[in-house]
Amino acid sequence: MMTRREALVTMAGGCATLLLGSEIKRSRLGIVTYALGIHQQHAGLSSPLAFLEECYRLGAGGIQCALGAEAPELRRRAEKYGMHVEAIINPPRDDTDVARFEHDVEMAQESGASVARTVIIPGRRYERFKTLAEFREFEARGLKSLQLAEPVVARHKFRLAVENHKDQLIAEKLAMLKHLSSEWIGLCVDVGNNVALMEDPLETARAFAPFAFTIHIKDMAVEEYADGWLLADVALGDGFLDLKAIVEALRAAKPDVKFNLETITRDPIKLPVRTDEFWATLPGERKDLLARLKTRPAIVVSKLPVADQLALERRHVERSIAYAREKLNL
Question: Would the pTM count as exceeding 0.85?
Fold first, then answer.
């Protein structure tokens, strides 16, 4: 629950943006639900309609979130604002879950979405799994879930975008797509996630670009700690990713692909690259991609008062939208 002070801070920010109305400079950049996660928890943005309205006030060009019963009204408002809508859908767990998945696809289409982002492997690879064999077991389950999903999305002519979710290496993700061989299953290319697997972000973008159905764009900074690195999302332009080159690579392959901001304001995640446990599920040579970078102090977001967390998240989003519009032509 918000205190009165926190509510006033949030309302003041929203009203100040709203007063700008049509004067605000708009961007084509969409916003992923997780980029406003603190606001969803503490400032009443949990529904897709409330999320759409806030993203419109912020000057964004679209949304990506879980959708529901508000589908007709969400579509009407998004079309009125000239904003794109993308869904977030879980793939079918097994044969008994296919009907639920098909219903979610139908609701997404009713909301105006033609693509949905999904993930197939739970958690971060280096945290969730202890051995490569254990990871391969869940990888096979993920492939099976997409094989169950494929006839549904093909029948509805709906695109399912699998995110590189700190799970598979570049070669593994491409092998999965080759095995599926479906025009309706592609990628939600997250420009930063494979950094956590010690793969170069520009190489990742170039490899995944031909299969991109949608994009998660973010920027990242690191701080050294005893076992490796603390990796934190920061506003676009404030981190170490070569965003201009990454965007160019993705656009060269898919000129019309939508970009959505997924800078998540949260505590930094740990990459314990100096431990054997980190590399236990990662085959091949050990390579510390981040060792060449300059580091910066990481903010422990959870220790801030809620009002400060809200302000920091809003600042990340507003600065990122401005940077995307002015520097990346998004």
Answer: yes
